Amino acid sequence: MKASLVLTLIITMSLVGVVSTYAQEPEIIIYSTPQEYEKLTGKKIVKFQESPMLRVKVAAGELPSVEKRLPEEPLVMKPLKEIGQYGGTLHSFTTYSNAGEAADLAEYPTLLSVDSKYRLVPNIAKKWEFSKDGKTLTIYLRKGMKWSDGVPFTADDIMFWWEDTQLNEDLSPGGPLSYYRPGGETMKVEKIDDYTVRFHFSLPYTIIENWLSVDTGPGANPKHYLKQFHIKYNPKANELAKEHGFNHWYEYFKD
């Protein structure tokens, strides 16, 4: 995808003044919001932390303070053992035939995630719920999330991903992937408001929540940036593509 922006999902926080105790099998503990953390632990988060590299950028005026970069209700994570050391070299191992694919899995933020006990937990989504018949899934996003250029992340970015990439015949000539078509019928995506989206299925499809926790699950694209390369929003997208050595707009869009 053309120079796609990274979603700034700064939701893992250092808890100041918290003394951690571990059972024989330590686990990562996820709290959907600071309010949930405070309610369940009786402790209050009084300060947010950030990496030394980001702290330097804040001091230089290149970034807003961490308080201004966080969503209104950031996710709180108690790490397995400790936050660890910033920087350095990451040494990884994978059984994938393509090592780069394994690295990609750690690169993309997802609507949901999986904790150390393999339970589904919130991530980009603050919460999610199915209708009683399992045919409708409502996703609630966190207010105040931003892309790396500071532009707010909203339901419009999910709608752009769905309507303008997944349903676009040039970008997805084979149509949406099979897990978006349970029973052979393509799901429908509805924007409820800026921070709520709803997926509609033709049959009960609660297994979709598993796809929400992996990089191939329902996604989002930075509409404010990518629409300049999309023919629907820019009638001169083909001309722009040819200026950069491509024959068609969708080739440049996916580059």
Write a short abstract of this structure.
It comes from Aerophobetes bacterium. Mean pLDDT is 86; it is low at 10-23.
Description:
It holds the Pfam family SBP_bac_5. This is ABC transporter substrate-binding protein. InterPro entries: SBP_5 (IPR039424), SBP_5_CS (IPR023765), SBP_5_dom (IPR000914). It comes from Aerophobetes bacterium. One of its GO terms (molecular function) is peptide transmembrane transporter activity. The chain is α+β, with helices and mostly antiparallel strands. The chain folds into two domains: about 5-80 and about 110-220, Dipeptide-binding Protein, domain 1 (Alpha-Beta Complex); about 220-255, no CATH class. The chain is about 25% helix and about 15% strand. The protein is built from nine helices and ten strands. The strands form four sheets. The chain has a four-stranded antiparallel beta sheet, with helices on one face. Strands 1-8 form a two-stranded antiparallel sheet. Strands 2-3 form a two-stranded antiparallel ribbon. The N and C termini lie close together (about 5 Å). Mean pLDDT is about 85; it is low at about 10-25.
Descriptors:
9 helices; 2 domains; 255 residues; two-stranded antiparallel sheet; single chain; ABC transporter substrate-binding protein; SBP_5_dom; 10 strands; alpha+beta; four-stranded antiparallel sheet; Dipeptide-binding Protein, domain 1
